[in-house]
Design goal:
315 residues, alpha+beta, five-stranded mixed beta sheet
């Protein structure tokens, strides 16, 4: 599949709010975990802050519905051959659960990569969409589950205020839900928010496809029958194939395979089980097939890959 780059376009912006977001993320991550890199959970449900001081190898992950805002540095995300480049003051919207490859490509001690990640609860999105006073927004033509945009000042400012709440934990229970709703509102006002609108709108083909994706995430170890999956989505098999590929850039079978392989990798790494046990637990009937597909996907056989991962974690 031919790949192309999707990146946010520069726009006139308030340097103050961008610089403030850099200062807030940097100060909190250094104060909370001064010697730790990577995502850090916070007292606000669904909010993570991240600081990285060096580029990373390409890694596999499954993204959940979420908003990532990048204050500094650059990150590249690959969705089945479609590449998304995220830089300063850009945001990445993920509207469904989707397996990706990601890599930090610009980060240093002097200019660390700083970002925040906010998990999106689709019922809250649906609640906001139900309001009659929510303005309509002109959508940009895109079909993927991921979208990159340049964050408007209002969105950046709301993110800064959400981080500020961490300094007063007693205010978090009352004020954080209000600020999260403001962030979702401002996200929905962007052209990229159209995909999130579709996923959260009952009856929309995007929403129906998201049901099939949610079912696959829960039942990835089961044998896949397209007629059963189409019934879950309440659409024809051919329509589901088309919509599924439009959202995820892969077929349902390819999506299931990636979920299985990533789940097997996690179990071998975390639980210490062997490759044969991991293969059967995630739904493979043949260990040799599992090993072949694992090697193609991760670049080396299962146990050698796990050994490499453990060595990198120990460094």
């Amino acid at each position: 599949m031919k790949s192309f780059h999707t990146t946010a376009q520069p726009r006139p912006a308030s340097i103050d709010v961008e610089a403030e977001l850099v200062r807030k993320i940097s100060a909190h991550t250094l104060k909370a975990h001064p010697f730790t890199e990577g995502p850090q959970a916070t007292e606000i449900a669904g909010l993570q802050l991240s600081r990285r001081i060096k580029p990373t190898p390409c890694c596999h992950a499954t993204y959940e519905p979420s908003l990532a805002v990048f204050a500094q540095g650059k990150k590249r995300i690959n969705l089945a051959g479609t590449q998304f480049l995220c830089g300063p003051s850009s945001f990445l919207l993920c509207s469904i659960d989707v397996p990706v490859e990601s890599q930090i490509i610009e980060a240093s001690d002097a200019v660390p990569m700083l970002s925040l990640l906010l998990r999106l609860e689709i019922p809250i999105v649906r609640e906001i969409l139900s309001r009659e006073d929510l303005p309509e927004t002109v959508a940009v033509p895109h079909h993927r589950a991921l979208a990159v945009g340049q964050a408007p000042d209002g969105l950046l400012a709301a993110c800064v205020r959400l981080i500020d709440l961490l300094a007063t934990p007693e205010d978090v229970p009352f004020l954080s839900p209000l600020l999260v709703r403001e962030i979702i509102y401002r996200l929905l006002r962007t052209p990229q928010g159209a995909r999130l609108r579709a996923i959260a709108t009952t009856g929309d083909l995007g929403n129906r496809t998201a049901r099939a994706i949610a079912w696959l995430k829960t039942n990835y170890a089961k044998r896949l029958h397209m007629t059963e999956l189409a019934e879950v989505a309440r659409m024809g098999v051919s329509t589901l194939h088309h919509q599924f590929r439009a959202l995820t850039a892969m077929s349902p079978l390819q999506y299931q395979k990636q979920l299985r392989l990533q789940a097997a990798r996690r179990r071998m790494l975390v639980e210490g089980i062997d490759a044969s046990s991991a293969a059967f637990e995630v739904g493979y009937e043949s260990v040799s097939q599992f090993s072949r597909e694992y090697s193609r996907f991760f670049g080396q056989p299962p146990m050698r890959d796990i050994k490499t991962l453990r060595a990198s974690i120990a460094v």
